[in-house]
Amino acid sequence: MSDLTNETVKNIEVTLNSVDRALGRLREGTYRSCIVCGGEIEESILAGNPFSTTCKTHT
Ligand SMILES: [Zn+2]
């Protein structure tokens, strides 16, 4: 039971980090920029994963 709780806490932390990073990118205006090539992240990618930091090519 405590393992499950640790796992849950870890998952929440990972999610929070993703949200935090996405918010930071939104603020900096780089939300839609791929961190690998700097190109625009496709709408379909962001629709599937709003926290994606890479374009289709670098997923
Ligand atoms: Zn890319």
Which tags fit this structure?
59 residues, mainly alpha, Four Helix Bundle (Hemerythrin (Met), subunit A), binds zinc ion
Number of domains: 1
Assigned CATH class: Mainly Alpha
Largest pleated sheet: none
Ends apart, CA distance between termini: 34 Å
Small-molecule binders: zinc ion
DSSP helix fraction: 55-70%
Rounded to the nearest angstrom, the radius of gyration is 14 Å
User: Which blocks of ≥5 consecutive residues have pLDDT under 50?
Assistant: none
What spatial form do the alpha-carbon principal axes imply?
A: elongated
**Number of strand segments:** 0
CATH architecture: Up-down Bundle
Structural class: mainly alpha
Percent of sequence in beta strands:
under 5%
Reported by name, the CATH topology is: Four Helix Bundle (Hemerythrin (Met), subunit A)
CATH-assigned homologous superfamily? DksA, coiled-coil domain
Written overview of the protein:
The protein has 59 residues and is mainly alpha-helical. The protein has a single domain, classed as Up-down Bundle (Four Helix Bundle (Hemerythrin (Met), subunit A)), CATH 1.20.120. The protein has two helices and no strands. The protein has helices at residues 2-28, 43-48. It is elongated. Bound molecules: zinc ion. The site of zinc ion has 8 residues, from loops.
